[in-house]
Design the sequence.
C-alpha cells in the first residue's frame, strides 16, 4: 500500500530542487488531500487477488503440515475461522489415531512433503474470494478449496475443504 506524503516533504523537496519560475515552495499552494466521495469503495491494495493468492498458498501449505503432524494447529488460529480450525484439528487427530492403531506405512507418508502446485482465485463478492489449489504430496495429488472473507481489514478463511 502507498501512504500519502506529508505536505512539508513535498515543499522541502521543491525548495531543494530550485526555482523553475513557478514560484517558491513557500508560495506554491499544496492541494488538500482528496476526500472519498460518499458511497465509494474503500481503498484497496493495487492487486487484491495477488494478496489473496499468497494468503491462500501459505495457509494451505500450513494446513497440510498440520495434517502431516509437523506443525501445531494453533499457528493457524489467526487465519482460520474457529469452525475450520476445529475441523482441521479433528482430521489431524483422526490421522494420528489411525496411524497409531494400524501402523500402516502408507498413512505415515500421507501429507508428507506436501507442495502447493497451483492456486486459482475468484472474487465472488466485495470482500469475498473463493480459491482452489492443487497440492501434491508423497502419496497423491489432491484438490483444496477455500473461501476467504475480509473482516476488519484482515483476510480470514471461513471454509476449508481438503480432498
Sequence:
Amino acid at each position: 500500500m502507498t501512504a500519502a506524503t506529508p505536505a512539508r516533504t513535498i515543499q522541502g523537496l521543491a525548495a531543494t530542487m530550485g526555482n523553475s519560475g513557478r514560484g517558491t515552495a513557500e508560495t506554491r499552494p499544496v492541494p488538500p488531500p482528496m476526500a472519498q466521495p460518499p458511497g465509494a469503495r474503500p481503498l484497496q491494495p493495487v492487486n487484491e487477488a495477488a494478496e489473496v493468492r499468497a494468503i491462500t498458498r501459505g495457509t494451505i501449505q500450513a494446513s497440510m503440515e498440520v495434517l502431516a503432524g509437523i506443525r501445531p494447529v494453533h499457528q493457524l488460529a489467526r487465519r482460520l475461522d474457529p469452525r475450520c480450525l476445529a475441523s482441521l484439528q479433528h482430521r489431524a487427530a483422526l490421522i494420528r489415531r489411525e496411524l497409531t492403531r494400524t501402523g500402516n506405512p502408507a498413512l505415515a507418508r500421507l501429507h508428507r512433503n506436501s507442495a502447493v502446485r497451483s492456486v486459482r482465485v475468484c472474487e465472488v463478492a466485495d470482500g469475498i474470494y473463493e480459491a482452489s489449489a492443487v497440492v501434491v504430496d508423497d502419496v497423491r495429488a489432491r484438490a483444496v478449496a477455500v473461501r476467504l472473507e475480509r473482516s476488519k481489514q484482515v483476510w480470514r478463511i471461513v471454509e476449508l475443504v481438503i480432498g
User: Anything to note?
Assistant: The two ends are 35 Å apart (CA to CA).
